[in-house]
């Protein structure tokens, strides 16, 4: 127990609430916590916060030291690599001691004077949360639209300002996604409105700058399982409406010179047909899974004849290689692929005179194309990093095949040397015989004797892949003897699209058993032991944490679950909650008995048992729109009531933020320091 164990944990009251579906009755004693405005709910969350603070009080000085150590590695007066768009160089920079970015630009040459676009530090004054998104410059370079959120609930207000005078127009558009798109007349803006209850992005409006008349609704997505967005093609010729669900896409297009025109459907939705479009030289290039191309292929069609049977193949489907995205340039097509888990960047001239791959020489790296907004250029921007190598931004000349490192992340403090660390990729065997890859990093010289503390991280949903990336924050664990592991479990797309398919819907439990198999392998190979093994995941990765402690609590000494999605059945039955309807293709629709029963069999909240559980730190955000705060709150209350051990169980709710946690760049590091202090304290490490 911690040194402050005299404080008793809060015990939440029980008010039995019956939930009936398919003739099955579940009793939820903590259903009452759903009322965000109720004083008793707020009091309970505050009591949990006070308990967590009291129990971790003896680590407060250590948390401060960790924070200062993490902060000291970060270059405070840092700036992004400038990129050129429509005659201007755009730069994002930070100033020493300030939490928020400053956005600026320079005309034609980096030697010219700087024009300030936004100083977010000034804009954030007096706000407990601040986020600016969706910076969009008008084609004549005179105006900028942008979105601001001051609650963390991802409901942005769009404003427009004159760049030269900094005068903000009266136009103010609320409850949007924050992004907006200019037509070529410099007066018309298109934007996406959210449903005020579910926060689903579902309506596209046309807005005339300075106009007093109501904005015109030009598209409404009627299917509750779909969201919608609007953007401009890189060629700048088309404004594009995207409609998307987990399994299906549909696009609508409009010539950007004709903002009052009518959008045309590109290819009507067909359930299960996924595609995305890029425009170039009279054609649309289509990344698609058409004709059972599970790992996607590239096709094209004329911009005037877009019928499905007119699509022609450009890059065929391959069983072993996932086609992830493309970047189109005037003379080159750049294809981002994933082969055996590794990122590959392929460069092909349109005239077919060249076709080659960028060379990489590591087994645990991440590489991806970055900001390539300029169309007529021979240079490709890409980023590279690895578990032991800080992030760098490179420019590759596709004609001369020469590369220039534009920037390598500086790790300040003078102590970091990448040669002091080693990384490797190893494979565990899952219950069904599938080989599951893991990426590991640790300090050189570690002995495999079972005594090393090890933090195992994974996500494992939505086909989202956690690549092996460098982190300056993580050095605070590695330098204290921790091994850090990313488990590339099914549900992500690390080994291709099938890897995702095998970790969703009625195969979701593969995600959880894969993670457990990785843990067993790490213990068997004596990287660690259950006394020193820790697991961490957030959001859908928090669901993973909830599932593994029900399945195999004895394997772990501690768990960190950040904003965890743990009350799966109740949430998926409530279509008033943001995300629910759009998630049916990921988890299944529990209104169907088959999915209801499968979901209930793994939902962490529904499967808590009277038994021992590991030490746990669980975080929540009161304004979280992705995972409602009551899921972690109810989960902790029920765990407290049922577990039979004296292990630590802390709930920390950020009362000012949403799904992403605190908004300032240093505020979020304080959360990291608290989480690391929790783990290190369990290992008896206090400095």
Automatic annotation (TrEMBL):
<keyword id="KW-0378">Hydrolase</keyword>
<feature type="domain" description="Peptidase S9 prolyl oligopeptidase catalytic">
    <location>
        <begin position="469"/>
        <end position="681"/>
    </location>
</feature>
<dbReference type="InterPro" id="IPR023302">
    <property type="entry name" value="Pept_S9A_N"/>
</dbReference>
<dbReference type="InterPro" id="IPR002470">
    <property type="entry name" value="Peptidase_S9A"/>
</dbReference>
<dbReference type="Pfam" id="PF00326">
    <property type="entry name" value="Peptidase_S9"/>
</dbReference>
<keyword id="KW-0645">Protease</keyword>
<comment type="similarity">
    <text>Belongs to the peptidase S9A family.</text>
</comment>
<dbReference type="InterPro" id="IPR029058">
    <property type="entry name" value="AB_hydrolase_fold"/>
</dbReference>
<dbReference type="InterPro" id="IPR001375">
    <property type="entry name" value="Peptidase_S9_cat"/>
</dbReference>
<dbReference type="InterPro" id="IPR051543">
    <property type="entry name" value="Serine_Peptidase_S9A"/>
</dbReference>
<feature type="domain" description="Peptidase S9A N-terminal">
    <location>
        <begin position="10"/>
        <end position="409"/>
    </location>
</feature>
<dbReference type="Pfam" id="PF02897">
    <property type="entry name" value="Peptidase_S9_N"/>
</dbReference>
<protein>
    <submittedName>
        <fullName>S9 family peptidase</fullName>
    </submittedName>
</protein>
<keyword id="KW-0720">Serine protease</keyword>
